[in-house]
Amino acid sequence: MYNSMASSQEAGSKGSTRLHMDMADAFNVMLNATACKDGTPGYAIWDLFRAEDSDKIRAFLRKKFGPGSASTNATANGQAQTPAEKAAAHQIQTIAVHDPIHSQHFYLDVEMRRQLWEEYGVKSFRIYQRPGEGVFIPAGCAHQVRRSSFATLSWPFLMARRS
């Protein structure tokens, strides 16, 4: 069972569930969601990527966050990085070098999804999920979720494959 909080769709958002990949098929049913601030029913926004695009997504994240990238070498207002900022940048670089999808460290916000499309021709398939609805995620497909409301409750079901 997943409980999650709302998140923004704007640039810099961390999402509700960061980019990751499951090794088995899954079916996630949203059981409940609080209403949004404007009173409309709560929902979840899923970004699902094709399994065959996984290596391109990894390449994009390594280019953007790996050693020597502009994102991890940035300084605030021209000031040198503090020791804590340097340590955080080093951690992000290390994660990006290994497997940036399985690390569950990254969320592709609106700006990063645009860059991914422009640079690698990869786009997500977006699904809007309301309470009572289910989303099927095939094994090996990277995906991430952003919730619109304060609290949602969903139940994942793993699917067994038989050959």
Report on this model:
- With 163 residues, the protein is α+β, with helices and mostly antiparallel strands.
- It has one domain: Cupin (Jelly Rolls), CATH 2.60.120.650.
- Helices cover 26% and strands 26% of the residues.
- It has 4 helices and 8 strands; from the N terminus they run ββββααααββββ.
- It has helices at residues 54-65, 70-73, 83-97, 110-120; strands at residues 2-4, 17-20, 25-33, 44-48, 125-129, 134-137, 143-147, 152-159.
- Helix 1 (54-65) packs antiparallel against helix 3.
- The longest helix has 15 residues, at 83-97.
- The radius of gyration is 17 Å and the shape is globular.
- The model has no long low-confidence stretch (mean pLDDT 78).
Rounded mean pLDDT is 78
What percent of residues adopt helix (DSSP H or I)? 25-40%
What is the domain tally? 1
What's the β-strand tally? Answer: 8
Query: In the CATH hierarchy, what is the superfamily?
Result: Cupin
Summarize the structure.
This protein is 26% helix and 26% strand. By secondary structure, the chain is of the alpha+beta class.
SSE diagram, text form:
Elements: E1 2-4, E2 17-20, E3 25-33, E4 44-48, H1 54-65, H2 70-73, H3 83-97, H4 110-120, E5 125-129, E6 134-137, E7 143-147, E8 152-159
Helix pairs in contact: 1-3
Q: Can you give keywords for this protein?
A:
single chain; 163 residues; alpha+beta; four-stranded antiparallel sheet; 4 helices; 8 strands
